[in-house]
Structures are given as structure tokens and as C-alpha cells.
Task: structure prediction
Amino acid sequence: VEFLRKFNDDKFGKGISNYVMEKVIDLGSLLLLVIISSFVFRDILSISYGYYAMIGFATFVFSKRPRQHTNQTYFFFGLTVALYSIGYFLWGLARSQAEALLAFKILTSGIILINSAYLEFVFSLLDSTRRKNTILWACHLVNMFFIYATCYDLLFKTAIKKNIWGYWPVAENLFYIYFIFWLGQFLYGLIHL
Result:
């Protein structure tokens, strides 16, 4: 502070201190803008951070022991969560029905793949992948069908704007069948943990 007062006494110093104060005010304004935008866009920012965090964790785990099956399945799990995060991020940015449907297709594909990766990781962690191989392949095949159903509008065909949060998909009957299957996969993996 004494240093700035000394510069205020002469013309050259006054110019420097004013320049410094303007930059401090600009930085304060920028900080305030970041804080406000983080509240406004907190979901969008947190999802993009989730994407980078999951890619980072998955890569870190994989790089520790790339030949270990558990590390490989965790890496696959991390990639599926990242795919889900991309879809969720795009959903937050969607300004039309078409954009929202594309985001939901990506998001739902991520959700479907998360369960496959989750089961792979659980059975890899328990070292029972060989014993559960038939169940895993059956789940993977059914999940691939549901990804196909997602891409060809069999789980939802349209999205409607419900409230201030944007567009929401209108679920078709097949979506409820998938949800039961999703829940069954989740519980099956949880029970075996």
C-alpha cells in the first residue's frame, strides 16, 4: 500500500497505480462473473468436470496395470461414464427438440453401457468373470439391442419442453422394459459384491 501511495505522488506513478487498480477491478469483475456463471451453469460445468475427472481416473487406473483385467474393465467403465457425461452436457445446451433428442441418445447409450461396464468390473474385481461369462455376454447382447433401440427412436421418439430446465424425452413402452432390465442388472451386480 505504501508503495502505491508513493507512486501516486508523481505523474508516472499515478498512471501505474491507476493501471493496477483498473486491472484489480477487472479481475474482481471477472471473478464475480465466474462465480455468477458457476451458479447459473453449475450443472453444465459440473458435468463437464465429471467428464474430465472420469477420463482422468480411468486413464490413471489403466496406466498403473494396463494388462490387468480389473484395470481394463475400470477403464471401460470410466469411458462409459464419460459418454454419459457428454450426453448430459449436451442436454444442458440443447435449444431445440432435435438437439435434445441427440443429447438423449448419447446420454441413454452411456447409461446402457455403464451397466455393462459395471457388471464387467464387478465380476473382474471378484475374479469371477469366467464363471459369469454367459450372463455377461447375455447382458451385453441385450444392452446392444437397447442401444440400437435408442438410436432408432424405440425408447423415445420426441422431447417436449416441460419447464425452465428444457426438453425432456417422452418415453415409449419399450423404455419401461429397459428400465426393469437396467434395475435387474444393477441389483445382480450389487448382490454379488
Remarks:
- Residues 6-17, 19-42 have pLDDT under 50 and may be disordered.
- The chain is about 80% helix and 5% strand.
- Residues 7 and 13 are 4 Å apart (CA to CA).
- The longest helix spans residues 11-40.
